[in-house]
Amino acid sequence: MNKLKSYLVNLCRALLAITFIFSGFVKSIDPLGTQYKIGDYLEALGLAGQIPDWIQLLASVTLSGIEFVLGVLILLAIRRRMVSKITLVFMIFMTGVTLWLTIGNPIQDCGCFGDALHLSNAQTFGKNVVLLIAAFIVMRWPLYQVRFISKTNQWIATYFTIIFILVASALSLYHLPIFDFRPYFIGQNIQKGMEMPPGAKETQYKTTFICVKDGVQKEFDENNYPYDDSTWVFQDTKQEIIEQGYEPPIHDFSITDAKTGQDLTQDILSKKGYTFLLVSPHLEMAEVKNFGDINSIYDYAKANGYGFYGLTASTERGINHWRNATGAKYPFYTTDGTTLKTMIRSNPGLLLLYKGTIINKWGHNDLPTPEELNAPLSLLSIGHEPENNTWLKILMIVLCYILPLILLIVADRIWAWTKWVKKKEEWVKEKEQSNKLYQLLKHKRQMRKKIVAGNWKMNETLQEGVALAKEINEVLKADKPNCDVIICTPFIHLASVAQVLDKNLVGLGAENCADKEKGAYTGEVSAAMVKSTGAEYVILGHSERRQYYGETAEILKEKVLLALANGLKVIFCCGETLEEREANKQNEVVKAELVNSVFNLTEDEWKNIIIAYEPIWAIGTGKTATSDQAEEMLAYIRSIIAEKYGKEIAEETSILYGGSCKASNAPELFSKPNIDGGLIGGASLKAADFKGIIDAWKK
Ligand code: PEP
């Protein structure tokens, strides 16, 4: 579906681009022609003579240029969203204008394609409806337009196009249009251009006569005209085309002597030799600066026996104005103003005819100089019809505009491609690096010790304890664990239990030790004494000791230091109360416990620390923290360890979860990436339950 949309959008976009480029270009290279067409529109709107010529010319250059630039922007998909909106607005306006032309017929030819292509008003309207639909489709999905040039370099193509079309317009205005699409092109025989091919049908008109009698207006045709009734007074005629016949390319050319009314068309067109025609639709507005050249061309023509006539639509006053301004001695005859504007886009302009065929044309800025006219025309190159140089002109446009634009696009594509390749390389590198980091972290996690530690608390007599230890030892001997197993017993069990445990299978730890080294502390057991039983671990900071025996952060700090100093590994507990969690203070509380009791340790000392997070509300209550809650807290603890000791040490630290951990919930808890095992209370008092939890590491 998306592919189909993309095809449709790009097809519509191509249609719009080609039309806009073509119509914009042919009008831009004929700025005067477009200005005349604007004049026709103003006349149809009743605004004739109200807008100065220079504004019309400016509008002609601007509008045609905008159309061309818009076409190129659509073609290259530059500023896709904005351009598609402008195009739609443009097409809505143009379709409205051509609908008006089709209904009202105020102008015969809309002038959409200048003189390059003539369409009837109905055809133009049909064309615009199609383009309007295309513009709507492109506007609806502008981003489906395939880009030919990257965003960064679009401005180069845009400015280059604007400069190109303005220069093309200026050159066409200063000289003559680059391409001549009118019927008075070089090589055209005017007489032949007026001929009807044999058998061609002439256009059929219907003439209606409007007469008035007693204030009543009535229309008559040739058949019922009241020739015999003189009370009907003739007022006006109307002419309608009944059937369009063949229209010769030149159908409105005539030369008349205004003074005598004599038609000189045939005389002039059938002259055997050369004839110069100085063409000026309005002599009052003609450029006078090159009159010297014109006069010398006239003198040259006279001296060589060539004809030289001025053709104008101006009245006697205008002719006299010109004569006074330039000293012109050549005769002036009358030709229709529109015909003269069609003959040459220059006021004045010069045509050279040979036997009625146009063999050369000059704008007033390019008239042949007296130095050039140094021999009879038959001996000069200007006296011969030049070779058709249309292909040369096309080649020039290709070299000056299309080729640089293509090179720009190619360079841009290469640039964009290298950028893309570089980005891809960087992306691959980044991915590799993050993969490496991920592998490292995974490795570290695999390397990190997985631990299941039991905390018997104040349970079991000496005999019961030894029996339980023996049983655990046996069970694990029979089925080797996948993790480190530790049992932490009351002091009185330590020495005896140490005797029954296989050190390689089960580690032994105490549940507490004194905060003093030794001496008169009745009832206390020092870290050194614990170590001497064969125990390797000690639980410190358990919430029950903090709660019931008033162990503060300061006391725990001392205990930790003494335990480490005596070669014990510390399982340091931390965790929040229910109220603290409900107040969302768990992170704050846990951080304070660690900061105040163990974050004073050196990196070396830290290597003998195991952290056990035990939310107080989950200890012995049967209420486990969810695996997500536990994971979230353990990840947080690892992050603050990383802040303190660095990422590597944090990754190596084993962090356990404790609180109603059982064989049933251990697998889920231990599956979390930051949970390295559990500190088990109640469930460590039965070998089978304890083993069930240990086996969670096998799943
Ligand atoms: C404990 O006291 O360390 C503990 C985790 O207890 P229980 O497993 O019984 O909740």
From TrEMBL:
<dbReference type="InterPro" id="IPR020861">
    <property type="entry name" value="Triosephosphate_isomerase_AS"/>
</dbReference>
<feature type="active site" description="Proton acceptor">
    <location>
        <position position="614"/>
    </location>
</feature>
<feature type="transmembrane region" description="Helical">
    <location>
        <begin position="155"/>
        <end position="176"/>
    </location>
</feature>
<keyword id="KW-1133">Transmembrane helix</keyword>
<feature type="active site" description="Electrophile">
    <location>
        <position position="542"/>
    </location>
</feature>
<comment type="pathway">
    <text>Carbohydrate biosynthesis; gluconeogenesis.</text>
</comment>
<dbReference type="GO" id="GO:0005829">
    <property type="term" value="C:cytosol"/>
</dbReference>
<dbReference type="GO" id="GO:0006096">
    <property type="term" value="P:glycolytic process"/>
</dbReference>
<feature type="binding site">
    <location>
        <begin position="455"/>
        <end position="457"/>
    </location>
    <ligand>
        <name>substrate</name>
    </ligand>
</feature>
<feature type="binding site">
    <location>
        <position position="660"/>
    </location>
    <ligand>
        <name>substrate</name>
    </ligand>
</feature>
<comment type="subunit">
    <text>Homodimer.</text>
</comment>
<comment type="function">
    <text>Involved in the gluconeogenesis. Catalyzes stereospecifically the conversion of dihydroxyacetone phosphate (DHAP) to D-glyceraldehyde-3-phosphate (G3P).</text>
</comment>
<feature type="binding site">
    <location>
        <begin position="681"/>
        <end position="682"/>
    </location>
    <ligand>
        <name>substrate</name>
    </ligand>
</feature>
<keyword id="KW-0413">Isomerase</keyword>
<keyword id="KW-0324">Glycolysis</keyword>
<dbReference type="GO" id="GO:0016020">
    <property type="term" value="C:membrane"/>
</dbReference>
<dbReference type="GO" id="GO:0046166">
    <property type="term" value="P:glyceraldehyde-3-phosphate biosynthetic process"/>
</dbReference>
<dbReference type="InterPro" id="IPR022896">
    <property type="entry name" value="TrioseP_Isoase_bac/euk"/>
</dbReference>
<protein>
    <recommendedName>
        <fullName>Triosephosphate isomerase</fullName>
        <ecNumber>5.3.1.1</ecNumber>
    </recommendedName>
</protein>
<keyword id="KW-0812">Transmembrane</keyword>
<dbReference type="Pfam" id="PF00121">
    <property type="entry name" value="TIM"/>
</dbReference>
<dbReference type="Pfam" id="PF07291">
    <property type="entry name" value="MauE"/>
</dbReference>
<feature type="domain" description="Methylamine utilisation protein MauE">
    <location>
        <begin position="6"/>
        <end position="138"/>
    </location>
</feature>
<comment type="pathway">
    <text>Carbohydrate degradation; glycolysis; D-glyceraldehyde 3-phosphate from glycerone phosphate: step 1/1.</text>
</comment>
<feature type="transmembrane region" description="Helical">
    <location>
        <begin position="54"/>
        <end position="76"/>
    </location>
</feature>
<keyword id="KW-0963">Cytoplasm</keyword>
<feature type="transmembrane region" description="Helical">
    <location>
        <begin position="7"/>
        <end position="26"/>
    </location>
</feature>
<dbReference type="InterPro" id="IPR009908">
    <property type="entry name" value="Methylamine_util_MauE"/>
</dbReference>
<dbReference type="GO" id="GO:0006094">
    <property type="term" value="P:gluconeogenesis"/>
</dbReference>
<dbReference type="InterPro" id="IPR035990">
    <property type="entry name" value="TIM_sf"/>
</dbReference>
<dbReference type="GO" id="GO:0030416">
    <property type="term" value="P:methylamine metabolic process"/>
</dbReference>
<feature type="transmembrane region" description="Helical">
    <location>
        <begin position="125"/>
        <end position="143"/>
    </location>
</feature>
<keyword id="KW-0312">Gluconeogenesis</keyword>
<feature type="binding site">
    <location>
        <position position="620"/>
    </location>
    <ligand>
        <name>substrate</name>
    </ligand>
</feature>
<comment type="similarity">
    <text>Belongs to the triosephosphate isomerase family.</text>
</comment>
<dbReference type="InterPro" id="IPR013785">
    <property type="entry name" value="Aldolase_TIM"/>
</dbReference>
<feature type="transmembrane region" description="Helical">
    <location>
        <begin position="88"/>
        <end position="105"/>
    </location>
</feature>
<dbReference type="InterPro" id="IPR000652">
    <property type="entry name" value="Triosephosphate_isomerase"/>
</dbReference>
<keyword id="KW-0472">Membrane</keyword>
<dbReference type="GO" id="GO:0004807">
    <property type="term" value="F:triose-phosphate isomerase activity"/>
</dbReference>
<dbReference type="GO" id="GO:0019563">
    <property type="term" value="P:glycerol catabolic process"/>
</dbReference>
